[in-house]
Design a protein that fits this description.
There is one protein chain. The chain is mainly alpha-helical. It folds into two domains: about 80 residues, Hypothetical protein af1432 (Orthogonal Bundle), CATH 1.10.3210.10; about 60 residues. The longest helix is centred in the last third of the chain and has 16 residues. It starts with a helix and ends with a helix.
């Protein structure tokens, strides 16, 4: 299933590049998958991590995700999607608000674990770490 998710996401993101770089976009979902594997996330969560930007950054629809990966993975991707425009801070505040209302415990677990890993990384810019640390602390109060 992970291999299928990688192929699907690679095709969906096509020739997209990471913002401000010449790196293929697919590197980001693969990094997310690596982190999720590191924290021993279930396979469905890893696949959802690979697919997490397909709804917001490609032409992939929710129904396509259901058809290819099932309702549980499609729902995880939907819960993690950030259908909000604007600067990074605005989009992250939208994510926090969305997480405060979700009933999906897997999504909360995913963000909590991701926050822990990101908070330990020393090669990230300090303001990025501060923002994600704040997100992680806010999640602990949900």
């Amino acid at each position: 299933m992970i291999h299928t998710g990688i192929i699907f996401a690679t095709e969906a993101h096509g020739k997209q590049l990471r913002k401000g770089t010449q790196l293929p976009y697919i590197i980001h979902p693969l990094e997310v998958a690596q982190i999720l594997s590191y924290i021993h996330a279930p396979q469905e969560v890893i696949v959802a991590g690979i697919l997490h930007d397909t709804l917001e950054d490609t032409l992939v629809t929710y129904q396509e995700l259901v058809d290819h990966f099932g309702k549980n993975i499609a729902s995880l991707v939907f819960e993690c999607s950030n259908k909000c425009d604007g600067p990074w801070r605005t989009r992250k505040q939208y994510t926090i608000t969305k997480l405060e209302t979700t009933q999906n415990q897997e999504v909360l677990w995913y963000y909590e674990q991701l926050g822990k890993v990101i908070a330990r990384r020393h090669d990230l810019p300090p303001d990025f770490i501060q923002e994600y640390t704040a997100l992680y602390q806010k999640l602990q109060n949900i």
